[in-house]
Amino acid sequence: MSPNPHRLPFYEKVGYSLGDAAANFVWRGALAYLAIFYTDTFGLTAAHAALLILLVRLSDGITDIIMGMVADRTDTRWGKFRPWVLWSAPALGLFMVLCFSTPDMSYTNKLIYAYITYIGLTLAYTVNNVPYSALMGVMTPSVNERAVLSGYRFAGAFGGGLLVSGFTLTLVKYFGQGNDQAGYQYTMYLFAALLVIFCMITYYTTKERVKPPAMQEGSLKQDLKDLSVNLPAILLPLLSITVFFYYREWKSGLFFVCGMTVTYLAIRWLLKRPAEALSNTQRDLVDLITNKPWVVLLAVGFLFMMFNGIRYGVIAYYFKYYAQNELMTQMFFMALLVVSMFTAAVTGYITEFISKKNLFILSMLLGAGFNSVIYFLGPDQITLVFVFGCIGEIFAAIMPVLFFSMLGDAADYSEYKNHRRATGLIYSAGTFINKTGGGFAGALVLIVLAGFGYNSADEQTIAGSLEGIKLLMSFIPAGFALLGMAVLTIYPLDAKRMQVIETELQRRRAVEAS
Where are the domains of the chain? Predict the structure, then answer.
């Protein structure tokens, strides 16, 4: 077998991975503690915290898509995507600190403060992580090398999560000396400094190599104005799902049906229009809607993030209240993330022997199975919780590696089919659906706990909520994994099809370069 001419150097893969290590100080690390911080330290009710998480996630429907468009249309001598990783790092670190600060305010003002800082955090994360994710799609044109790079990325992501999740509670106790409010704040100062350093390393060690075909005419200002006209059609289905998910009443059900019907009619109208009558933004949307691999991945991304997000969101509650050992939380996080880090590092190489689609399906099936066993374990069977949790995590860690690698394949498919490439937009939608899944997962954890009567201020409610905590650690996330497995069966891009696409795109780029 001839060597891959598009293979990336080791230092560049490692440098790229540190960018997601930085982002996961926020995503997989700090946010894993944010729900319990809001309810048990900051003083919000579980219901208010759940609504906060859901509503703020809706803002991502605007910012992720806008950021994808901005990144695609950015043209600097440093590249399209790399500069944003560097420019956004200070703001991301700042809002991480602010989210875990506890000013002395009334309850209403605390709620307002939580909204402002959480919106700021998600916005800064979008500006950082959407271009970072898209960067993977232009560092190499090789499908296989992109899978390997995705493995490095998530090894770094899990490594960053390991550092934060594994040491947060210890550092909080060390810095706080009994004052959790001060402990959280000073701990986040440390993580924010590391975040900025890692983003700088990513910027200086990576290179953009894949140049898209000539973009559509029109300025960014014109395209953003056009996007503002089309935003209601984008946000309506998200708003409908959110209202139905949170309120669960007949009125919200009616709103959901009406919202999805309007969305369906808007899509039909858009698809029937001739290509020359579409604006740039509408052409981008049509490219996405008609990109079957991307649509399938969109659904799968939401479902596997529900699977992973629910599991991670309930761990702190599980060990604090069910196992009666709060400090075991960080040990469990560390065990899961160590497993995840090594699994992610080898996943890309495994795809040389088994297709991405089949590996994804197998991971969802086995991840759901091993995770479900935890329901039957007692509070004194901590060793078995660790065993089955870590085995399940092997398969859970494979999912995001494959997902983001396959988004790059969907971008290739779009260029192959439409002679247009919007890498940033494709990855922004994928990033958004992941954050939406994570947001819904965090909210679902709090909604289920509230449904079982959980109230951190009333110890008498804890015993009644233990059944809900067990379900959230086992069968509830497993159900989402099985749904994702079913959706994956219709994913159309196999290894043979991708080889044809990769060869054709290389031929086209060679012609354009000559």
Answer: 10-209+220-513
C-alpha span between 148 and 7 (Å, rounded): 10
DSSP letter for 10, please: H
Nearest to 25 by CA among 129, 104, 113, 111: 129
Which of 204-208, 226-230, 509-513 ranks highest by mean pLDDT?
204-208
Write down the pTM of the prediction. 0.75
Q: Kindly report, residue by residue over 153-206, the tens digit of the pLDDT.
A: 988 888 887 777 667 778 888 888 878 778 878 888 898 999 999 999 999 999
- The whole-number average pLDDT for the span 309-319 is 89
DSSP string of 201-263, one letter each residue: HHHHH----PPPSPPPSS-HHHHHHHHHHHHHHHHHHHHHHHHHHHH-SHHHHHHHHHHHHHH
- 389-441 residue pLDDT tens: 999 999 999 998 999 889 888 888 888 888 777 777 788 767 777 777 777 78
Percent of the chain beyond pLDDT 70?
Answer: 87
d(CA 386, CA 368): 15
Distance, CA of 60 to CA of 78 (rounded, Å): 26
Distances (CA, A) of 394 to 122, 178, 205, 352: 28, 36, 29, 18
Q: How many residues does the chain have?
A: 514
Helix-helix angle 280-289:382-418, to 10 degrees: 120
Mind spelling out the 3-state secondary structure of 272-327?
HCCHHHCCHHHHHHHHHHCCHHHHHHHHHHHHHHHHHHHHHHHHHHHHHHHCCCCC
DSSP codes joined into one string, 58-106? HHHHHHHHHHHHHHHH--BTTBSSHHHHHHHHHHHHHHHHHHT------
Task: Determine the distance from the C-alpha atom of residue 124 to the mean position of all C-alpha atoms in its chain, rounded to a whole number.
Answer: 14
The kind and range of the H/E element at 177 are none
- 3-class DSSP assignment, residue 9: coil
d(CA 179, CA 201): 34
| pLDDT tens readout for residues 350-398 | 988 898 999 999 999 999 999 999 999 999 999 999 999 999 999 999 9
Structure tokens at 204: 């200086």
Average predicted confidence (pLDDT) for the chain = 83
Q: Residue 60 corresponds to which tokens in the numbers above? A: 């991502």
CATH for the 10-209+220-513 domain, from 3.30.1440.10, 1.20.1250.20, 3.40.630.30, 1.10.132.30: 1.20.1250.20
Return the top range by mean pLDDT from 110-114, 138-142, 441-445, 447-451. 110-114
Helix and strand numbers, DSSP H then E, in the chain: 18, 0
What gap in Å lies between CA 136 and CA 206, rounded to an integer?
10
Cα distance between residue 446 and residue 53, in whole Å:
10
Give mean pLDDT, residues 85-101: 90
For residues 67 and 127, the answer to whether their CB atoms sit within 8 Å is yes
CA angle in degrees (0–180, nearest 5) for 299-352-335: 65
